[in-house]
Amino acid sequence: MRKSLSRNPNMLRTMVGVGLVLILVLAYAVYSNTVDSEYYGYTTTNEPIQLQMQEDVEGEAKWHATSEGALTWINVTISGASEDTTVRVEASGTEWYYSPLLGAPDAENFICGEWNEFSESCTLGSVHEAQFEGDNLTVRGLVTLKLPIDGLGYLQSEDMVSAEADALSLIAGQRDTVIWSVSVLDTDGVVSSQGIDLTVEIVTHEIVSISEFKLDPIQESVYSFATLVGCFSLMLVLPLMVYYSAMYKAKRDERIRNETPEPEQ
Predict the structure, then answer these.
(1) What is the pTM of this model?
(2) What is the mean pLDDT of residues 127-144?
């Protein structure tokens, strides 16, 4: 390493210069996102609301209810139905996304669409059906992908006033009145509602608070410095490992040659 630096004195200056440039770039990135951020976070309500379902015809497993507001989730849970029956969930006035993976234990982060990509397992329509198997069945759907699923979203705006206006406009644009209809069917049509329990929950969103997005400068500086040290460590450690491995192999080969007796003539 010393020989390399003595033969190329600009090497050390180049490494130090690149390190200082990276530190300045990272410092400016932290400063710009801390002092003058163009992104704002908005928090919304995210509590489930249980709908009061009413039977269309007494004694038949077909119910309806009306919801209002900016909806994301619709959760329909049915128990007590016979196997091989079909649960049909219909939304009058809007279309919604359905997939068996929504809310599944092995797919907790599945939300149909993310980063402008849409899963093929999700279908969009006003009516969705699921086959009843086992003791109970839960049909989960997403009414919109534009609202924050976990109640926290971000948007880009010029200032706090415009950010608040944009957030309120987003919520207002998703408000709708929807008539939900749930029915349990077999090959003969709607089955009897005796022994069947139904629960329908929706999740609506209203603006709670809006705040400017800021980074913790100390924390981000520590992360940036650790990243910088890690990058330079990789740049130095890997070549040094190769160099010392080659030197060790050369010395070992030379020792073996010295210890091996020469054949007698």
Answers:
(1) 0.67
(2) 89
